[in-house]
Amino acid sequence: MNTKKRFSFRKAIKYISVSLVSLVVLWIAFHQIMVFFEKNKYQATGQLVEVDGNNMHVHVEGEGPKTILLLTGLGTSAPVLDFEPLMSELSKNNRVVVVEPFGYGWSEKTDKDRTVENVVEEVRVALQEAEIEGPYILMPHSIGGIYSMYYANTYPEEVESIVGIDPTLPAAVDYFNVPVPTMPGFLRAVGPSGIARIVIAGNEEVFYHCQQKGHTPRKILS
């Protein structure tokens, strides 16, 4: 009797495990199919320029004597959409530019290391390819502060000024006596797995509210 129960329990666990794995595989396949169709449905809002053999997205709004370059924070899915409310206001009297780094928004991915030097050089090449001349008013958010400091120190003739939006500065690590933050390796699987799609589907009202108010979900929920 005990043997039969043990066998039935193991059989049930096996079926449940196989079912869960099958569901995960089917979901990932569904997500990848949706990504393929969504890429064609939602076209880039700006222009795609070639940088190191890959396409980088450059979005421009407005005209004026000043050129404001908005630099995104770490992990912002689509900088152009995240900055949209701010761009709408600033572009009334200025030319406002958002260059989405590789891996962000409509820009493609790259195998190059995500060092400060590489990111800044890629942004500069994208601006040149898009024929957007400086000097620029750098307006960085979060980790964009690190990029803006490097940009200004390396190419001072291209930077008119820096206006921070809660930026991170190089001395922050020493000031707060904390280790340099790094992105956990498991986050590489978040995009392909479709986890973000599930999160959004379960919090549509929150994300809709964020979009209307120009906030990220993190700001609304915190």
Biggest beta sheet attributes: 7 strands, mixed
Distance between the termini: 54 Å
Q: Which assembly state applies to the chains in this document? A: single chain
Work out the radius of gyration: 22 Å
Give the DSSP E fraction (strand runs of 2 or more residues).
15-25%
Q: Find the structural class using helix and strand composition.
A: alpha/beta
Low-confidence residue ranges: 211-222
Secondary-structure element pattern, one letter each: HEEEHHEHEHEEHHHHH
Amount of helix: 40-55%
Q: What's the number of helices?
A: 10
Specify the overall morphology. elongated
The overall strand count is 7
Average pLDDT, rounded to a whole number, is 85
Based on the model shown, name its key terms.
alpha/beta, 222 residues, 10 helices, 7-stranded mixed sheet, single chain, elongated
